[in-house]
Queue: 3 jobs
Job 1
Amino acid sequence: MMLEDMEIDDRFKGIPAGTAPFALRDMGRQGWNLLAGDLPLPAAVLRRSALDANSGWMRAFLAQTGLSLAPHGKTSMCPQLFHRQLADGAWGVTAANIGHATTYRRFGINRILMANQLLSRPDVAWVAAEISRDPDFDFYCLVDSLDGVDLLVRHLRAAAPTRPLNVLLEVGQSGGRTGARSLEDALAVAAAVASVPDLLSLAGIECYEGILPGSDDAAIEARIAELFALMGQVARAVEMKGWFRPGPVLLSAGGSIYYDMAADAMRAIGLSSPVQIVLRSGCYLTHDHGWAQRAWQRLLERSPHLAGLAPAPRPAIELWAYVQSRPDPGRAIVTLGKRDAGTDIDLPMPVAWHRIGGAGPLLLTDHRLIGMNDQHGYLSLPDDSPLRVGDMVCFGISHPCTTFDKWRLLSLVEDDYRVSGGVLTFF
Amino acid sequence: MMLEDMEIDDRFKGIPAGTAPFALRDMGRQGWNLLAGDLPLPAAVLRRSALDANSGWMRAFLAQTGLSLAPHGKTSMCPQLFHRQLADGAWGVTAANIGHATTYRRFGINRILMANQLLSRPDVAWVAAEISRDPDFDFYCLVDSLDGVDLLVRHLRAAAPTRPLNVLLEVGQSGGRTGARSLEDALAVAAAVASVPDLLSLAGIECYEGILPGSDDAAIEARIAELFALMGQVARAVEMKGWFRPGPVLLSAGGSIYYDMAADAMRAIGLSSPVQIVLRSGCYLTHDHGWAQRAWQRLLERSPHLAGLAPAPRPAIELWAYVQSRPDPGRAIVTLGKRDAGTDIDLPMPVAWHRIGGAGPLLLTDHRLIGMNDQHGYLSLPDDSPLRVGDMVCFGISHPCTTFDKWRLLSLVEDDYRVSGGVLTFF
């Protein structure tokens, strides 16, 4: 499927009602500028200059550390951004499930790390057929329990692929998410994998350090260190047993918050075999005004040497809405709701405003979104707020994943908010 | 566009990977049964028997009260459900914005109540063109401020429709959402509308009682009563001024929680003109296991005479996921995340489980979802939990709107979980 040929019209939220259909490649030729009021609001936009900066940051980080990246595609589910990441040197793309993987395949992604357990008969049947059909398709998934290996083996045996399925043994920590909790448990799973070499091939060790519970940064970071210590123990023990497939051992971890720690910790795992270290950070490319920005500040505290590596990540994703009513003193109602923005970590944050025909956008301080309904937001205003009905407000977000999935199309804008293109998501 | 001809394949979350494309009308002929493990999980299903029951409930309520219904389409954004509601006698469909309205028009909806302010140049231009093009298109939107009327008039004048735009004057309450807060403010807006009869036509009065703040049910219900008192005052005053368009005066309110109160209150508003009362409840058709179920219990406490009217609403929407890991005592990780289910009111609630090949589904008690990531759920288990890796768990939800928008396709299932069809959403 040629993405750039896809027909765009007002079926897509963010495209003006009544727009005649056009090919995605021509989106920048519609003559639209957000600040002129050409787009219906709410609108989600990606600032191209920020994407460029963030792309440059990750290239510099990978060059300095010598690591590989399989960015988690679930963040955006946007093949255009995946291809940008691959052009930047990404090794593959990470998926959360087989639904993601089928989408990636449709858009030409040849290496997929499914950072999750593969369980069900239809999912296994598809993977088995796809690795049999295409010798260049390089696919990995996780195993973390004997029951899970049993299911996978049963379904694989029925599907009879022409080559073994690559798996990564997942380790985890008590109170965390998935993953074997101890060296003993992990080795039992590895032994089960090694016992069916016709069906499974043990490619490496995986963990996810991004969701460990803890009372503060230091406590969480201590648990992360323990997790990587377990990863090292398990990797060395599996290597001693000779259970890894031939070739480099894959070590993979690294979400969007602690990837500096993950990189350092995995580089310190000493194996006799060559090692390939794969990070999976997904949110670096868009960054944000909240969660990712706070994580970045903490990253710089932990790893101050990274500050000078390249220009820092900047928020690329913005949401714009109209003030539709100012019914009470100190309150505006805006056309932005839970259908348009993630609210799982913080509510969107007003950062700028603009009046059509005026000189904006201008910075907006002391305004705060205090609630959202499905299609409305409640904005708390200072006494001297400039906002009137019909004014536009720009919101930053916190956690790109839960905002991307509210939009099938996001406009790419230049720094003057001229629409220069668009990207499609496939949730 | 013929919806039933639309091509379905594994681009849609919920369709097995590798499924050959088929027309939507043939979804029931794929031979799938959820309990046999034929669908990839997570899956969202609608139980047809519950939709039938809920449809019957609302038909009975409208027949008893003599009211009209324009169900809020934002709940599901599902034209197949809209057409079911219209076949059940709905007067029109409610929209939140022009993006919704263009979707409704594409699928043949001729009467749209946009329960929101219409603000922007491109949105007004589309409405003006559409009411000019199609004399049978009956469209309404809200006005609640002089600034809003000014914007609307300016854009309408530029767009030059061949007939005036119908508006409803919105009244609201301090601390609520949109809506003029007093008789005086409302009359000023009505006067502004009446002053441009070539462009605007005042069709009635609107309010939304569903989001008033209050410390408990009684406090909220007292404020709702005040809101409807204001609606009555304004309606009578506007009628005295002669500012309504000829014909019946529309009175519209009624979300999914307090529609019994809205119905009673609007029926008690005495006008000299004939009145048409339009409720906008959107969630009755699917109901749920949480928010809507609690609202229903409270509705029966307020309006006990409704208990015997028809069989009570039942939850029609369910989410199913696999147990993918049981890494810690008392904990299972399931394949259901924030990408799959609304979490804005409550997390999804496990209600049943099934083992493929077993005799389920069986009721599940004492299990609780205690957290969700984007693609995972954390299930807390009792010591004697039957759940193993690979088992299926059925979740009820709380607030249909924020779950529908996670799915472009939901399977329709019979009581034995045979897939008998599918419905598409257009978010």
Note: Chain B touches chain A through 74 residues (CB under 8 Å).
Job 2
Amino acid sequence: MRQSHTILTIQTPGAGLHDFTARVVDWCAGQDVTDGLLTLFCRHTSASLLIQENAAPAARRDVERYFARIAPESRDYEHDDEGADDMPAHLRTALTSVQLSVPIIGGSLALGTWQGIYLFEHRRRPHRREIVLHLIGE
Amino acid sequence: MRQSHTILTIQTPGAGLHDFTARVVDWCAGQDVTDGLLTLFCRHTSASLLIQENAAPAARRDVERYFARIAPESRDYEHDDEGADDMPAHLRTALTSVQLSVPIIGGSLALGTWQGIYLFEHRRRPHRREIVLHLIGE
Amino acid sequence: MRQSHTILTIQTPGAGLHDFTARVVDWCAGQDVTDGLLTLFCRHTSASLLIQENAAPAARRDVERYFARIAPESRDYEHDDEGADDMPAHLRTALTSVQLSVPIIGGSLALGTWQGIYLFEHRRRPHRREIVLHLIGE
């Protein structure tokens, strides 16, 4: 049994779902682990991780619009030092998650056919985000 | 230290919370691991995993009604190829989670007294769902 | 590779976000693990775990008010045996999470600069909560 880790840096162009499944798969492929557990951890409080439908762009746009609606920009937040999109970003992060673990079986991530791994950027402006990948297995 | 894995197939009768704690406990019991970490991973984007109250059926019905209310069926979604219950299913999955890890201590899952492990089916019709179980420990 | 575990008991004064990052860091420091994976598991259905902004108390108050608003106390729940704050507590737990895994790299939790680990108490009265910590690494 052994482990390895890395930090992926993702430059987001602005709010929305950004598919980075291929980068995760590529890194895992280089670790020579047949069976194990991959953990992804997003080091931010205004961006999160989400597994979503990887085929229909319309579904992702609906997800983005939904979170914009249930955790909207508003003048009613007490915390607004960093702009109107800051507090909704914390709320959307809380409603989703900053951590995700995916088993590896037979050399592949055990994702379902329609599952992609997305970074969900919640701020309007471009950001540089860090995702820690930790792999344990053999 | 060693690991093992399996895939549980669960036939859901339709939307709602389905308790499968017993199947998880049974599989773990056969792995001869005293201390470790169990990870459950749902390979779908329209069904999710949830730990919920295992004693009061009324509490589970309230949970089901709540998610039906905050992520309702609607004509306003752009993505509707697979029916009116498809996009709400993706949203309810995003609001809960497809992954869950539970420590194993002294041969037992470290669940609290009132915690059960549920598959939360979000589609109206019966579906065959796959849950990957990954166990590492000794 | 080896593992260790403990159970942290946290006495909550009532509803709200309670930072216990320091207790987690302290326990990990005593385990002599340089690289690994820490998993936190909350053994309750009316309290949850949340990583949130650790600098601005106003942001935490906004988070508390937000969850009180989207999963409010109400007479419309079927389950109300344990009081008006019970069913909203289950819903707020479902919207957040009872489990969280954080990689350990170079002897430190891989948290971002602004991330703190919070117990999110959803009941009004003080409660004694148990959080299982499981660490695997070397």
Note: The longest helix of chain B spans residues 57-70.
Job 3
Amino acid sequence: MAAQMKVIIIEPKTFDDAQQVANNLRERKPVVINFEHTDAEAAKRIIDFISGTTYALNGEIKKVGHNVFLCAPSNVNVTYTEEERKVSAEMPWLKK
Amino acid sequence: MAAQMKVIIIEPKTFDDAQQVANNLRERKPVVINFEHTDAEAAKRIIDFISGTTYALNGEIKKVGHNVFLCAPSNVNVTYTEEERKVSAEMPWLKK
């Protein structure tokens, strides 16, 4: 049986919440960050802090929606399955 | 060392893409669904289909942002860390 895995969802309020995201990444847990209710200035600083964290931990940050990001530690592989849409946006002549 | 884990990100275009979400859930992989570019009617049907899938597999669906959902199979535990905000929205007299 596969081991139990954890995904954390965080809606940061202030820059201080960045630490909570970083702690979960250090524990090798993926984190979904929802900035919909975050002050724009704080969101920008959190993104910078978490970019530093994921860089240090060899992880990655992916935008998964408007104001929603997925931060993945190095043990988590993130796969986009809808490459077609992006290709068709860049190369409309390939559009079905 | 922890096993490599996968998180799938899908931006569905049509109802048929629901099957792709379901296949990943059956393979015990969490899926982030971004409905920002999905027709509203198709999104509704996909949500219903995936609700059926997660119910069958004892998993869960969580809204993680406007038009963004996280679908987790039963081996994935989803944790919200920001309960305070919800409480303060419902009970504003508790607000800091």
Note: Chain A has three helices and five strands.
